[in-house]
Amino acid sequence: MNTPVRKIIHCDCDCFYASVEMRDNPSLRGRPLAVGGRPDQRGVIATCNYEARAYGIHSAMPSSQAVKLCPDLLLIPPAMEKYRVASRQIMEIYRDYTELVEPLSLDEAYLDVSASTRCKGSATLIAQEIRRRIFETVGITASAGVAPNKFVAKIASDWNKPDGLFLVRPEEVDAFVAALPVKKLFGVGKVTAAKLNKLGAQTCADLRGWTMQELQHHFGSFGARLHDLCRGIDQREVSPSRERKSVSTEETYTPDVPDLPACLALLPDLYGQLLGRIKRAGAERLVNKLFVKIKFSDFQQTTVECVGYAPNLASYARLMETGWLRASRPVRLLGVGVRLGDTETVEQLSLFAQDSETPIAAPVP
């Protein structure tokens, strides 16, 4: 018996934060615009419009570098509450068509519309209608990809950006994926892509000549994933409930924090921010570890964590001291957070924990 073909839509808005800003202030349109932190405070770019991208600016780029690339860049600080309002409107539109919506960010999601009866059951018509409604309701454009699985739908949504739609039919998947460069594969970053290229695999078609054993020899367990993806195979389900693994807050400091006492002096503010985030996430009863993250002036980074079921300032102070002593130099970033588990796991752990403040994690390179 043949498995029914799934209908998956990947939809996300075009340069979301920047689009909201241009919607609210039309005079910003047509000018290079970015949303992000200030260059003099080690800020980074959250997103930018297409005029800014023409200068080579992209998300996660240091704002100082972005301004060098484009001296006329308009840099606006993020207005998160405004973006969350738009996000709620967008997610409500997605959920009008199916309960199987897997959010990936404020504006981006996978939708499984295989069983939807809207638009005569046509995934393409549903995607067109969603894009139209987002524009009419929220005032910004969105792009969508339609395909039989998440991997191909995600790539398809980028195909006709901005304000575009691209469909990959089931019978087109094989040829569509074969022509893709290996760097497009889900989970392949710069390092893995460079290794694949060095080994002679430039496209997914090249990669198909490798056996499963060869891929696993070079890439370990990820080899099996590569074997499937280069053939357009992706069985992942659209999962409406994505389990949250942690809650944290961090700050980058200018100038660098000089020593341990100065770091400890900043801890109460970070701790207060963390408690607020834990409360807003409703995660008070799910905490099973506490952690501190430190990035030193030479960009070396370390994380220290311990078993713990409720945040407390004394534990974070001990973790911070342990982490700082690993390098004993000025610090550019400090973060504090908690790891989360389900209630049953947390309760079981608490029965056996003897020392809730024993560091259990090695430094992260």
UniProtKB/TrEMBL annotation:
Residues under site feature: Substrate discrimination: Y17
Chief place of localization: cytoplasm
Molecular function GO labels: damaged DNA binding; DNA-directed DNA polymerase activity; magnesium ion binding
Keyword DNA-binding in record: yes
GO process terms (BP): DNA repair; DNA-templated DNA replication; error-prone translesion synthesis; SOS response
UniProt-listed Pfam families: IMS, IMS_C, IMS_HHH_1
Cross-referenced CDD domains: PolY_Pol_IV_kappa
Lineage: superkingdom: Bacteria
Swiss-Prot/TrEMBL cofactor(s): Mg(2+)
Broad EC category: transferase
Cofactor details (free text): Binds 2 magnesium ions per subunit.
Active site per the UniProt annotation: E108
Keywords: Cytoplasm, DNA damage, DNA repair, DNA replication, DNA-binding, DNA-directed DNA polymerase, Magnesium, Metal-binding, Mutator protein, Nucleotidyltransferase, Transferase
Claim: Secreted is one of the keywords in the record: no
Location relative to the cell: Cytoplasm
SUPFAM superfamilies membership: DNA/RNA polymerases, Lesion bypass DNA polymerase (Y-family), little finger domain
Function (record text): Poorly processive, error-prone DNA polymerase involved in untargeted mutagenesis. Copies undamaged DNA at stalled replication forks, which arise in vivo from mismatched or misaligned primer ends. These misaligned primers can be extended by PolIV. Exhibits no 3'-5' exonuclease (proofreading) activity. May be involved in translesional synthesis, in conjunction with the beta clamp from PolIII.
Family affiliation: Belongs to the DNA polymerase type-Y family.
Name listed for the protein in its UniProt record: DNA polymerase IV
Species: Massilia horti
Lineage start: Bacteria, Pseudomonadati, Pseudomonadota, Betaproteobacteria, Burkholderiales
